[in-house]
Specification:
This protein has 10 helices and 17 strands. Bound molecules: S-adenosylmethionine.
Length: about 350
């Protein structure tokens, strides 16, 4: 199909990319001809304005087969070779919002509009694209910076048929945990009592309560996280098989405030600090109960070693341990889950 193309010097392209990105027709591949690049334009582009940046010509670019392409492949012809490694190859879709991994200011300035336009084309239902800046502070929140779209306060995120209410930028949410939510759910039996010590918006708690007739107590220190969970409990009320009790407090005080102290499973998903709460968890665990401890380590041996050392120092052993690598954390560091059937020494 014949289209209007902007003919531009490849070097100059990087200078003007933020100004032309919104007019590029991403359904077509650019034509690269030595040092020139012919950029296919959207039909309604302001040609008079674009003429100031390069010649406008008619061209017949190749149509892209979008089903096979990832966002990175689509933007690649417009990216400097030296910048390619900084273009994200993956991103998170949370409801109608996309979260990009952390990007530097210069990459964002140069390619932000193009990336957002590409994502919008691949996922027409999204309303906003944010960059997440890293996980911060006690609440493990990722600060978000809007790249495209209307600022959004909340979104509804679906996981295994459950709807989660998510206040953006105020709570921890990580779709990469969805498999782990199911793995833990499968370990719980009807009739069990489960304590989700660092529940966040209730990833484990809601998965368990919609599939098992177990009592779930979900605790988080972040009031926004507890507010989201309460809202999600209400939204999923018809699917719940079990009761979830949501508490907003520091997990340290649980032995003092919980009347029932015999939980069959205690989930401790606060990887950088979980070992510091084992003493409290042991006070709340039933005889023969299971601790599911998330922690950061280089390998399985190190993860198990840290848990065993802590338990032994408190007079317990980790029986029938099961260790799973759950997430990448940093170069050569991972989040592991160590599940222990705990026994007194
Ligand atoms: C990794 S996130 C939990 C994610 C959640 N389990 C999920 O599956 O989506 C850790 C949570 O621990 C909470 N937290 C941090 N310190 C805490 C404490 N002392 N007591 C209770 N919750 C705490 C944070 O607010 C955060 O929501």
């Amino acid at each position: 199909m014949t289209k209007k193309c902007l003919v531009i010097n490849a070097e100059y392209l990087y200078k003007v990319l933020p100004n032309i990105a919104e007019y590029i027709d991403l359904l077509y591949e650019p034509i690269i001809n030595n040092h020139l690049i012919l950029v296919p334009l959207e039909d309604n582009s302001p040609l008079e304005k674009l003429k100031a940046l390069g010649n406008i010509t008619s061209c017949t670019p190749r149509k892209r087969y979008l089903k096979k392409l990832k966002a990175r492949d689509i933007v690649k012809p417009y990216v400097k070779n030296s910048d390619l490694t900084h273009i994200p190859s993956s991103y998170e879709i949370i409801g109608d919002v996309i979260l990009l991994p952390p990007l530097s200011n210069s990459i964002l300035r140069l390619y932000g509009v193009l990336l957002a336009k590409t994502l919008k084309m691949l996922h027409p239902r999204i309303k906003a694209v944010y960059v997440r800046m890293g996980t911060e502070g006690e609440y493990r929140i990722r600060e978000l910076r809007l790249v495209w779209g209307e600022p959004k306060q909340y979104t509804l995120y679906r996981e295994h048929g459950i709807t989660f209410y998510v206040l953006l930028g105020k709570v921890y949410v990580n779709p990469s945990l969805s498999t782990e939510h199911v793995r833990i759910t499968e370990l719980v039996n009807d009739g069990d009592r489960v304590l989700d010590m660092f529940a966040g918006i209730g990833g484990f708690s809601l998965n368990i309560a919609t599939r098992k007739k177990a009592l779930v107590v979900a605790v988080d220190i972040n009031p926004w996280a507890t507010a989201c969970l309460l809202r999600s409990i209400y939204m999923n009320r018809r699917r719940l098989k079990a009761e979830i009790i949501a508490l907003n407090c520091d997990a340290k005080i649980l032995p003092l405030i919980l009347k029932h102290k015999s939980f069959n499973h205690i989930i401790m998903n606060l990887p950088h600090k979980s070992l510091g709460f084992i003493r409290e968890a042991l006070e709340l665990l039933s005889e023969n109960g299971y601790l599911h401890i998330y922690l950061i380590a280089r390998d399985m041996e190190e993860a198990l070693g840290k848990v065993e050392e802590k338990l032994t120092s408190l007079g317990y052993i980790c029986n029938n341990s099961n260790i799973v690598k759950v997430l990448d954390y940093a170069p050569y560091k991972y989040v592991f889950r160590v599940t222990c059937n705990v026994k007194a020494l």
